[in-house]
Amino acid sequence: MSGARPLSGRYLRRRAVNALGIGFAVFATVFGLFWLAWILWTTLTRGAAALSPRLFTQMTPPPGAAGGLLNAFFGSFVMLLIAIAIGTPLGIGAGTYLSEYAVGRRIGGMIRFVNDILLSAPSIVIGLFCYTLLVQPSGHFSGWAGGVALALLLLPVVVRSTDETLRLIPATAREAVMALGVPKWRMITLVLYRAGRAGLLTGLLLGIARISGETAPLLFTALNNQYWTANPASPMANIPVVIFQYALSPYQSWHALAWAGALIMTVFVLLLSVGSRLLIGRRPGM
Amino acid sequence: MSAESLGLAASRPMIASRRAGPSGERVFAVLVTAAAWVVLIALGAVAAAMFWGGLPAFRAFGWRFLYGTEWNAVTRQFAALVPIYGTLVTALIAMLIAVPVSFGIAVFLIEVAPRWLRGPVAAAIELLAGVPSIIYGMWGLFVFVPFMSEQVEPWLIDHLGPLPVFGVLFQGAPLGIGMLTSGIILGIMVLPFISSVMRDVFALVPVELKESAYAMGCTRWEVAWRIMLPYTRSAVAGGIFLGLGRALGETMAVTFVLGNAHDLSFSLMDPGNSIAAVIANEFTEADSALYRASLIALGLLLFVVTFLVLAGARLLLVRLARQRGE
């Protein structure tokens, strides 16, 4: 109890460290938000300057000429549909298996582990995989290969959200239904899927948001196509790859188109991810 | 919520289900099991395809593929040291930025910010993770590269370039394009992934622990640094590994700003390359089987490294969950 002075010196130092630490925390947050604002602002201003109705009515132009992104929007749309058609049933099925059939079994833990790896695996590797699996044997790039690559990226998102959503439904609900003599698969399809509707939809929307902006896996699967095509067996234009090629080109008119595409894609992706979060935000306890 | 749908759902299907009998049960079980195996097989198939695809390159170049520096499409000599080095260096710069900043953000969100501010700020930071990576690349090329080459890099070259040993990292021309710029952009990209893991696990720290520390007279920073961080140590490391996995495999953002150079240079200012960027830039133009095999072999390297990093992340994250479960 002797030294009030050394104690207060130490106290001051602790207060100073605390102020520095808290100051750093505030700075870090502002730092993070600063980049977000800068990136979004750039996309917004440069994209808005290049927006025009032509984007949705004309095809991608040769350098110097006027044009739009219609074929690219359409190609992206088709490939998203392919990815959703493949990824959703597989993902919900696998998620259902994890939550309802693999309870307490090692295989469940293993599949969850593998799924988590797939969730963060580099998308360019998935693209290479689809190239060796689909493009090389068939001899040409195709919209199908692009769709499959995107499906492989959508799959783990849907698996995880299905698994987590179904596991949140109380066991008593399952037991009550089973006690009525309803078979398990009916219980799952008619009760669990309905109860977990919002969660399943959120997972799917988040997954779509993720694959809508993916470029790397499309570079050597769908490639690009300067012209309109509705045939997924041929190379297909798509927004991300068009943005990539136009942004790296030396032509001003292509840069403008790339920024317009970038703006539309970013708005689409962010609306999807914010919207799906709001959907789940309504549910208490998540 | 499940109770209400229960009443709706259970009344009708009873009769239908008796008719369907046990065969429907079996079909459904087989279908979902098959779907689950697809997930398992997908990862194995990716690994196998990369391995077979890259095999010719490993056969042709042996271990030299890993430590050689020559990458020449004309003479068909391919070795991967330059992209490997670029991948590691950019990821390292990214982690140097992202880890402390993520910790600061997590502390801000858990201990500092008023309650009303937490939701919006957390959502805004997560938006950073939602922005497509090609947007980072475009912004990097058209906005950030000029900024770096005009404002930041001349200063670094003038002031840090003459330093002994370290100076070598900061010599050269202020092109803007290069490993430093790529590393910074990668750092911004992975920051939301790390900070959201940190925030989630900090929120799991038992409130009794924190309150005891406050009652002993700890400051907020001391609670964050000495209570929350040690308690969640393994999960925080898991979050960092998760971010590292992302940084290593990120393609589009770095492809725009790395410069696709195949010369080994220690300066962070010089154009460089990364595994993912080489594949993105050159794969469609690869004109020989060996060239393509070398690129796939690079893909295999990337896959193996990220697999190890992500598996490590998983194991570290699971440890906290288990600790809480017991």
Describe this structure in words.
The complex is a heterodimer of chains A (286) and B (326). Chain A has helices spanning 4-50, 70-101, 106-120, 123-138, 143-168, 171-179, 184-195, 197-212, 216-219, 239-247, 252-281. With 286 residues, chain A is mainly α. Chain A starts with a helix and ends in a 5-residue tail after the last helix. The relative contact order of chain A is 0.14. Chain B starts with a helix and ends with a helix. In chain B, helix 6 crosses helix 11 (252-258). By secondary structure, chain B is an all-alpha fold. In chain B, strands 1-2 form a two-stranded antiparallel ribbon. Chain B is globular and about 70 Å long. Chains A and B meet through helix 1, helix 2, helix 3, helix 4 and helix 5 of A and helix 1, helix 2, helix 4, helix 5 and helix 6 of B.
Averaging pLDDT over every residue of chain B, what do you get?
88
Q: Please tally the β strands of chain A and state the result.
A: 0
Total domains of chain B, how many? 2
- If strands are numbered along the chain, what order do they take across the biggest sheet of chain B? 1-2
Let me know the largest β-sheet of chain B: 2 strands, antiparallel
Strand content of chain A: under 5%
Largest interface, C-beta within 8 A: A-B, 105 and 104 residues
Q: Give start-end ranges of low-pLDDT stretches of chain B.
A: 1-11
Q: List the total number of helices of chain A.
A: 11
Major sheet details of chain A: none
If you compute it from the alpha carbons, what radius of gyration of chain B comes out, rounded to the nearest whole angstrom? 25 Å
Class computed from helices, strands and strand pairing of chain B: mainly alpha
| CATH-defined architecture of the largest domain in chain B | Orthogonal Bundle
Strand content of chain B: under 5%
Give the proportion of residues in helices of chain A. Answer: over 70%
The multimeric state of the shown protein is heterodimer
* CATH top level assignment of the largest domain in chain B: Mainly Alpha
Q: What is the molecular shape of chain A?
A: flat
Question: How much helicity do the residues of chain B have?
Answer: over 70%
User: Average pLDDT value of chain A?
Assistant: 89
